[in-house]
Amino acid sequence: MEKRFFATDCEGPISINDNAMEMAADFLPQGDLFFARVSKYDDFLADVEKRPGYRAGDTLKLILPFFKAFDVTEEAMALFSRNHILLLPQARETLGFIASFLPCYIISTSYRPYIQSLCRAIGHPEQNSFSTPVPLDTFPLKAGEKERLKTLAEEIAGFPAFDWPDSAAGPADLSEKTRSIIGRLNQIFWGEIAAMDIGRLLTDIRPVGGEEKAAAFRQIASTLNRPLANGFYVGDSITDVQVFRQVNQAGGVTLSFNGNAYAVREARLAVLSPTTLPMAVLAQAFHREGLSGVFSLARDWSREKLLQFGVNPSWVEVLFPEAAPPQAVPFILDEANRSEIGKQSSEYRKQVRGEVIGALG
Length: 361
Description:
Layout: E1 5-8, H1 19-27, H2 31-48, H3 59-62, H4 64-69, H5 74-83, H6 91-99, E2 104-111, H7 112-122, E3 129-132, H8 143-157, H9 176-195, H10 200-204, H11 211-224, E4 231-235, H12 241-250, E5 253-257, H13 261-266, E6 269-272, H14 277-299, H15 303-309, H16 313-319, E7 329-332, H17 338-353, H18 355-358
Parallel strand pairs: 1-2, 1-4, 2-3, 4-5, 5-6
Antiparallel strand pairs: 6-7
Helix pairs in contact: 1-2, 2-8, 5-7, 6-14, 11-12
């Protein structure tokens, strides 16, 4: 049997949280609106403009100067994270089960205090995780910059919601309203804040998003001395696009778990599920038979097949409850079904994680 390995994003496949958004909502006035606008701006820079040097997930560094302005400390972030962990059903059992037969890792854009807290809560080894370090206390903030950042936070929260067509390839494809908001955000972040002393946060902090996730996956493969083709990666958002592409090209398995349109666009398979158990079952198929085994099980996903495969009967009861539709069905994605399943998955993630978090990129 070939030696394989498994890695997953955290927020989405393992937990319901969006820790950064939740902290913004708690620590900043109108922080939920503020975070939603910055997150959408992040989507534009990463996926539409494709700004050189900018990575999906850099939202986590863009909001840090504002955390400083409202007196957020590393201790406050750690305490909030410990007290606000929301796991998907069976998440602890799923990761423990997978780790019993495959090297198992978490690769997350999330701030390190949250990932440390989650690892301790579920018994996952912290050394088998990647996350964004945030030495917030080491960055001093001048009084004048503090007051200005508070004013800018209010301005950003006050922006109306904005969007763009799927075909957009740059500012010229935006509506006048959206172009104006993007232009103002460019001024705020890359003009005004970048010129502040606290603007060092925008250059010194490097979130684990986009290419950093792909690099982490390569590092795992190198450490284990296993080819990328022997890897299974689970993700759900724009920060997973690059690692999905990398694993697909190598011939490994990529799974969008309650993913948004960005994730479904790139993954080999998609699952819509209220429980993490499909991840455990598919990982076991991968361990035994590789990509072909995963596809084979996905094509014949039934109560009888899962029992025959040796899945825990109590898990089968969760996935196939009596007198009710199946709780989860894996889809093998292709050009014929990708768009429709992307829409279904985007709506379903809002049911699982809530409208606000589910709508984020």
